[in-house]
């Protein structure tokens, strides 16, 4: 019974594939709270496990520690996930590293990795910081604890542990800003995990299948929405999540879902004198495992080298920028309306001027006739002879 329950849970965790080694791709409490839709966001130390290109968005040194206790309440199951990561910006590039661990009763997986990422603006200035590329080089190691039943098994004849080297590739891209020169906070992410399909088999070939993830994220004034589509070993999963900071303070609220679970989470951010502290929690409710009280995941993140920019401050800045853009558009529209009004006034004045000229032209003949009559009278007076000879004929 215990073995069947364990098998069911493992299949649920690793999305039902032929192989069950190194297939968990969900790390970090913040991404878990967003339904594991994090590929196009990847803007903190969790990016090492999601999209290595995203570590270029970390402008300060930072690290995170996570612990997860899946399927709390099932006494016969003892599983745990944990990871620790660190990101170090160098100016010309960003480096990172970390360890991931999965532990069951008689089984352990460890992944050790180093990361390198860079903004392509260094080589292509027209892209600025809109295109980033990243690479993970990792060592996958797993070990079985043998007992009386498995000690003489032929599978373990050459040993009970094995390791292999794997490679991940990531890209983060903001196409609208680059192509259309429009400040829309849309980002696209692409991650290719286990590009070389490393072989971690003890006796027979057991290759870790390549996983492809494509993500899209859009930042609204007071929340971020994200969508991921992941494909691994012919299975496709859709992930959706949101992160909101409704009060523009230190509290963040998250939610999301995918085909395996429903997710909720929150975060709280402290900003101290020399560093920042993020505390994140995620609750995951499985859709196909009965008798569980859900999975609980917590993480603690540290950001060194103040000043540290909090995520909620970024949201506030984005809202402020939106308001500035809106006011600028309103001012531009007002100026345009004033110009149109001024133009109409000038046209009206011009038309009134034409009317006045026409009126003057129409009145001109009458004035001309009066002037001609006056001139004729003056001429007659000049021509009249007022000599004494002519006076006698005057009455």
Indicate the topology.
Elements: H1 2-13, H2 29-33, H3 47-50, E1 62-69, E2 80-89, E3 94-103, E4 107-119, E5 131-144, E6 161-173, H4 175-180, E7 186-193, E8 211-219, E9 223-232, E10 235-244, E11 251-258, E12 261-271, E13 275-286, E14 295-304, H5 311-383, H6 388-391
Antiparallel strand pairs: 1-2, 1-14, 2-3, 3-4, 4-5, 5-6, 6-7, 7-8, 8-9, 9-10, 10-11, 11-12, 12-13, 13-14
Overall number of strands? 14
State the shape. elongated
Number of H/I helices: 6
Distance between the termini: 154 Å
Arrangement of strands in the largest sheet:
1-2-3-4-5-6-7-8-9-10-11-12-13-14
Low confidence ranges: 1-19, 177-182, 386-395
Structural class: alpha+beta
The largest sheet is: 14 strands, antiparallel, barrel
String of helices and strands? HHHEEEEEEHEEEEEEEEHH
Q: Tell me what portion of residues adopts beta-strand conformation.
A: 35-45%
Helix content: 25-40%
Q: What's the gyration radius in Å? A: 39 Å
Mean pLDDT: 79
What does the model show?
It is a single chain. With 395 residues, the protein is α+β, with helices and mostly antiparallel strands. The protein has six helices and 14 strands. The protein has helices at residues 2-13, 29-33, 47-50, 175-180, 311-383, 388-391, and strands at residues 62-69, 80-89, 94-103, 107-119, 131-144, 161-173, 186-193, 211-219, 223-232, 235-244, 251-258, 261-271, 275-286, 295-304. Strand 13 and strand 14 form a beta hairpin. The longest helix is centred in the last third of the chain and has 73 residues, at 311-383. It is elongated. The termini are far apart. 31% of the residues are buried.
